[in-house]
Design a protein that fits this description.
Length: about 270
């Protein structure tokens, strides 16, 4: 049975086997991730990772839909969640619904994700009541970089915890089926997980979260630098550099293409 996992399937995993989530922006990586992950996130981090942008702020809805389509084509089992980019949902619940509906209709994915806690609760309720499963995102919310000033861990002071806990509770009460908790002090990530009835998916949060997510290119070692919370499970950058170097040498020395890479002339039929 290769039915795709759904938002309710993920919602039901609270407190159970940890949820495995990774980002993917392309058909080829989606195919590989789909073999092991429960959720594939088409994150707006694609602006920084694929396009070299300095933040996720410039990412557009059309970019998200284009890469979301590629990931849907490349996968068949995981739940695909697509980020609503900055500017596509904050203005009103109606604007958020219009953007989310475009994503669901044009890509066929199963859910959207948006950043923000208590301030987004009305929007999350509006979407979920109208058939749009929403994954929320609290803690560090990178789309707010211009207001935050830097990408730094949140909730390092216990005095700040009530705000983050209230955010997580607000999105859960509003109907979010799960919530990403990004870059918070470990005990806060643990506490949020205990405080809400929906699965928490940590990235730089806590091993106690109900699941974990990483940016694929970070964990593969394709990015030159990655944050503290990334475990680099591979170092693909040097492998690619080596392959490109060897190719360049072989083109210049005429070692490539060899006979096995070229086509023989067809002998004329008698
Ligand atoms: O855009 C993204 O990759 C994300 C994850 C870091 C959760 O939102
Ligand atoms: Na994101």
């Amino acid at each position: 049975d290769i039915r795709r996992l759904t938002a309710p399937d993920i919602r039901a995993r609270k407190g159970g086997e940890p949820i495995v989530m990774l980002t993917s922006y392309h058909a080829h990586t989606a195919r590989l991730v789909d073999q092991h992950a429960d959720v594939i996130l088409v994150g707006d981090s694609l602006g920084m990772v694929m396009h070299g942008m300095e933040s996720t702020v410039p990412v557009t809805l059309d970019m998200m839909i284009l890469q979301g389509l590629a990931v849907m084509r490349g996968s068949k089992r995981a739940l695909v969640v697509i980020d609503l980019p900055f500017g596509a949902y904050e203005e009103s619940r109606e604007q958020a619904f219009r953007s989310a509906a475009r994503i669901l209709k044009e890509t066929g994915c199963g859910a959207v994700k948006l950043e923000g806690g208590a301030r987004m609760a009305d929007t999350i309720r509006f979407l979920t009541e109208r058939g749009v499963p929403v994954m929320a995102h609290v803690g560090l919310t990178p789309q707010s970089i211009n207001a935050l000033g830097s990408f730094k861990a949140q909730g390092r002071d216990r005095a700040d915890w009530p705000v983050f806990l209230a955010d997580a509770k607000a999105v859960a009460d509003a109907g979010a089926f799960s919530v990403v908790v990004e870059a918070v002090a470990e005990p806060l990530g643990r506490e949020i997980t205990q405080a809400v009835a929906i699965p928490t998916i940590g990235i730089g949060a806590s091993v106690a979260c109900d699941g974990q997510v990483l940016v694929l290119e970070d964990m593969l070692g394709l990015t030159p630098w990655s944050p503290k919370f990334v475990k680099r499970y591979g170092e693909l950058g040097p492998h690619i550099a080596k392959a490109v170097e060897t190719y360049a040498q072989e083109v210049r020395s005429r070692a490539f293409p060899g006979p096995e890479h070229t086509y023989a002339e067809k002998k004329p039929a008698k």
